[in-house]
Amino acid sequence: MKRPTTLLATIQSHHLYLECACGRGAEVSVADAIGRLGHSANVSDVVEKARCAACGKKSVKEVRIVYKGASDTAMAGAAGTVDSTCEDDGGVSDL
Ligand SMILES: [Zn+2]
Questions:
Q1: Domain for residue 30, yes or no?
Q2: How far is CA 43 from the centre of its chain?
Q3: How far is 52 from 95, CA to CA, in rounded Å?
Q4: What is the per-residue pLDDT for 4?
C-alpha cells in the first residue's frame, strides 16, 4: 500500500479514513491523532499505529484524507482536544 507522508499538522482540520484488510473502516480525527502522536507525525505514522478493533490486526489497506468542513477547525487549533465520538464505532481507530 502506498502510504501518504503528508504531515498531520498541515491537514489538522481533516479526518483520516482507515480501511482494514478485513473490510472494517473507521475515521480518525487528524487533530486527535496529532494529540497522540505529536506535531511531527505524518499520515503513515497513523497508519502504522492503527489497530483494527474488529480483527485486532495492524493491516490498514487503504487510507483516505477526508475534509469534513470547517466545523471543528476552531477546536483543532486549540489543544488537540476534539470530539472523538467518531472513533467509537469499533473501527480502525486504536492508535
Ligand atoms: Zn480488521
A1: yes
A2: 8
A3: 9
A4: 86
Mean pLDDT computed over 22-50: 96
What is the total count of domains within the chain?
1
Q: Is residue 81 part of a domain?
A: no
95 C-alpha to ligand 1 centroid (Å): 14
- Looking at the predicted structure, is the pLDDT value of residue 18 above 70? yes
Strands (E), 25-94: 25-29, 51-52, 60-67, 92-94
Q: How far, in Å, CA of 9 to CA of 4, rounded? A: 14
Q: Which domain holds residue 49?
A: 1-70
**Where is pLDDT greater, at 68 or 74?**
68
Distance 93 CA to ligand 1 centre (A): 11
